């Protein structure tokens, strides 16, 4: 009889443990939460902020202002994802753009895709807008520098423990003469321990 | 009350086997029906949560074979995530599997599944023109294989994964990485005592030559003396993968015996792969001046059998332990109440089902062919004998996937 009771108890435990409900809690968008150890929004924001801060504190910007008497115009090009994860580099690029624009130290030029759309709008204005409000072609602000980069990862593992090492490399290239005026590097290391047990 | 519970348990567990039978029936149907039709039938199924990984693996693969790469990526990524979570041991499932049936455990994928999912995802990204996404998947496949690697064993080591990695790296002009991947593929094929496909020999020669790895190049020239020296200027490159057939699915081997005193029935059920004579059929690439036949890189059918074989001792141990526990339970209950004992015995027999789950819609084998040409049209003769003509642009690198289950030909081209 005792064994039979144990069987029913085991069954009950099985069903209780397999049952789970969904719960939702609103959290601050700035709150740092790491669920899987993968690249996340916090990494994207932190790296973008730190790298842009670094790039804007280097001599190239002072030299450019001294030589030309104007703030440099910058554009963010592509950031290649060479990591082990499907990282949305658009978000990272958007974070960098925000940091650059909000710094107030540089002029910022729209991306190639955005420019095409603006040009189409200008073309439309050319045909349909009043002469006073019309924006004419060939008045675009040309960028002086382009920022490009890549995200790399190295993963080391032993059993259920992983060390995830992210390295973000960015460089600022002078569009006029292809000189690299700034090279930045930011590393993130995460120790991820996966549980051996689950529900 | 207990009798009702017993009936509920039996009905629930028989539902598991019914779903499994359906899944195997659909896998067999792939030989005669189009992937689109099988996918439509599979989507009607309502798998239990514990069968989700298997369901998503099959659904994702069928979506891939129909050319719906977005769905394939979504579904296979889900399967990948599920398998990753299920790597951790579940106490509740082990209690269920240990006391009632093996099918109460969630399907967490065999080593072959865990690497093949990255292969199919990499190809999905590639044919969707997202080479960066394909690169991510081949890196993940490498991590998955490193995790599974065991000393003196090829557990979860897939030559096809390294071959696809080599092709993706070649498309990205990462020649050093491509050579390393091709070498890994060569090592695995050699360890499996299989002949090296001509395309792979050419890749090893080509990459070591382009990289200027002189010693390696000389070694490969000695090993493959029939192959010509690669030229400095590469013509249009065509990499062809061919998925042939469908992998075998498991069957149940059952023994039902009376106990020594004939007081109760004892059932032992084990999963097994039936012996099948594999017919390996290649595809043919035809140009006006040359002809290339695809050759086997991976015998997936062998891999899934090895996966099960590796698990068989632990399955057998658990099955016999469970049978003993069930026997003892029925014996004690029968001492108290004959009728309840009889019902419990029937329940223990009915719930003793082998776990027949597997990624049962994988291709039976994967083949590879390579050619370089100055021509801009190639003809592909697959198993269906309906030649397909592919236009290739001058100076392009091309990846083509054909399969024996449908007429779809997937083509990725880059200049």
Describe the structure.
- The complex is a heterodimer of chains A (199) and B (415).
- With 199 residues, chain A is an alpha/beta fold.
- Chain A has one domain (37-193): Rossmann fold, CATH 3.40.50.
- Chain A contains five helices and six strands; from the N terminus they run H-H-H-E-H-E-H-E-E-E-E.
- Chain A has helices at 2-18, 41-56, 59-68, 89-103, 112-128, and strands at residues 73-82, 107-108, 145-158, 161-174, 180-193, 197-198.
- In chain A, strands 2-1-3-4-5 form a five-stranded mixed beta sheet, with helices on one face.
- The longest helix of chain A is centred in the N-terminal third of the chain and has 17 residues, at 2-18.
- Chain B has 415 residues and is an alpha+beta fold.
- In chain B, 52% of the residues lie in helices and 16% in strands.
- Chain B has helices at residues 2-29, 35-43, 52-66, 69-85, 91-99, 111-127, 131-148, 159-171, 175-191, 198-211, 214-223, 300-336, 338-350, and strands spanning 89-90, 236-244, 251-258, 265-272, 284-286, 291-293, 295-298, 365-373, 377-381, 388-391, 397-403, 409-414.
- In chain B, a hairpin with a 6-residue loop joins strand 9 (377-381) and strand 10.
- Chain B is elongated, with a radius of gyration of 25 Å.
- The interface between A and B is medium-sized, with 28 and 33 residues.
Give a quick precis of the structure.
Chain A: This is Penicillin-binding protein activator LpoB. Chain A: It comes from Psychromonas ingrahamii (strain DSM 17664 / CCUG 51855 / 37). The complex is a heterodimer of chains A (199) and B (415). Chain A is α/β, with parallel strands linked by helices and 199 residues long.
Q: What letter string, H or E per element, gives the SSE order of chain B?
A: HHHHEHHHHHHHEEEEEEHHEEEEE
Q: Uncertain runs of chain B with pLDDT below 50, 5 residues or more? A: none
Widest sheet: strand ordering of chain B: 7-8-2-11-12
Overall average pLDDT of chain A:
87
Question: Which terms would index this structure?
Answer:
heterodimer, A: 199 residues, alpha/beta, Rossmann fold, five-stranded mixed beta sheet, 6 strands, B: 415 residues, alpha+beta, four-stranded antiparallel beta sheet, 12 strands, 52% helix, 16% strand
């Amino acid at each position: 009889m005792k064994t039979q009771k144990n069987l029913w108890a085991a069954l009950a435990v099985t069903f209780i443990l397999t049952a789970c409900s969904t719960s939702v809690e609103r959290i601050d968008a700035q709150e740092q939460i790491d669920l899987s150890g993968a690249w996340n929004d916090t990494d994207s924001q932190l790296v973008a902020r730190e790298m842009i801060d670094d790039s804007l504190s280097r001599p190239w910007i002072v030299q450019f202002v001294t030589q030309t008497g104007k703030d440099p115009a910058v554009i963010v090009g592509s950031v290649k994802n060479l990591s082990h994860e499907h990282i949305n580099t658009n978000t990272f690029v958007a974070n960098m753009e925000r940091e650059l624009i909000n710094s107030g130290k540089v002029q910022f030029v729209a991306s190639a895709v955005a420019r095409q759309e603006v040009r189409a709008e200008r073309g439309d204005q050319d045909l349909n807008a009043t002469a006073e409000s019309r924006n004419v072609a060939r008045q675009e602000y040309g960028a002086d520098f382009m920022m490009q980069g890549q995200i790399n990862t190295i993963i080391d593992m032993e059993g259920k423990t992983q060390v995830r090492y992210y390295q973000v490399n960015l460089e600022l290239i002078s569009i006029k003469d292809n000189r690299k005026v700034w090279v930045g590097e930011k590393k993130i290391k995460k120790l991820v321990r996966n549980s051996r047990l689950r529900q | 009350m207990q009798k009702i519970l017993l009936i509920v348990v039996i009905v629930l567990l028989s539902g598991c086997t019914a779903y499994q039978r359906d899944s195997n029936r659909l896998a067999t149907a792939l030989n005669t029906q189009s992937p689109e039709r099988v996918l439509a039938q599979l989507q009607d199924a309502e798998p239990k949560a514990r069968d989700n990984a298997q369901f998503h693996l099959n659904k994702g693969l069928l979506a891939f074979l129909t050319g719906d790469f977005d769905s394939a990526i979504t579904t296979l990524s889900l399967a990948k995530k599920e398998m990753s979570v299920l790597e951790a041991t579940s106490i509740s499932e082990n209690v269920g599997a240990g006391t009632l049936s093996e099918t109460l455990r969630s399907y967490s994928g065999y080593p072959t599944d865990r690497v093949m999912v990255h292969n199919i995802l990499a190809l999905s990204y590639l044919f969707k023109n997202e080479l960066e996404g394909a690169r991510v998947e081949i890196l993940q496949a490498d991590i998955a294989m490193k995790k599974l690697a065991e000393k003196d064993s090829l557990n979860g080591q897939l030559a096809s994964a390294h071959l696809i990695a080599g092709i993706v790296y070649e498309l990205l002009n990462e020649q050093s990485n491509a050579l390393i991947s091709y070498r890994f593929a060569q090592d695995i094929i050699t360890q499996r005592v299989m002949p090296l496909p001509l395309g792979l020999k050419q890749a090893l020669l080509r990459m070591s030559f382009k990289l200027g790895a002189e010693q390696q190049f000389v070694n490969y020239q000695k090993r493959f003396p029939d192959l010509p020296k690669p030229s400095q200027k590469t013509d249009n490159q065509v990499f062809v993968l061919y998925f042939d057939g469908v992998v075998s699915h498991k069957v149940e081997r059952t023994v039902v015996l009376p106990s020594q005193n004939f007081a109760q029935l004892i059932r032992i059920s084990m999963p097994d792969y039936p012996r099948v004579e594999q017919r390996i059929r290649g595809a043919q690439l035809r140009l006006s001046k040359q002809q290339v036949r695809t050759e086997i890189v991976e015998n997936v059918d062998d891999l899934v059998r090895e996966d099960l074989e590796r698990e068989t001792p632990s399955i057998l141990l658990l099955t016999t332990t469970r049978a003993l526990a069930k026997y003892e339970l029925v014996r004690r209950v029968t001492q108290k109440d004959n009728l309840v004992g009889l019902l419990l015995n029937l329940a223990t027999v009915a719930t003793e089902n082998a776990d027949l789950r597997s990624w049962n819609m994988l291709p039976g084998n994967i083949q590879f062919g390579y050619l370089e040409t100055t021509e801009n049209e190639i003809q592909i003769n697959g198993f269906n004998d309906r030649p397909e003509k592919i236009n290739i642009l001058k100076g392009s690198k091309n990846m083509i996937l054909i399969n024996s289950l449908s007429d779809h030909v997937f083509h990725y081209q880059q200049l």
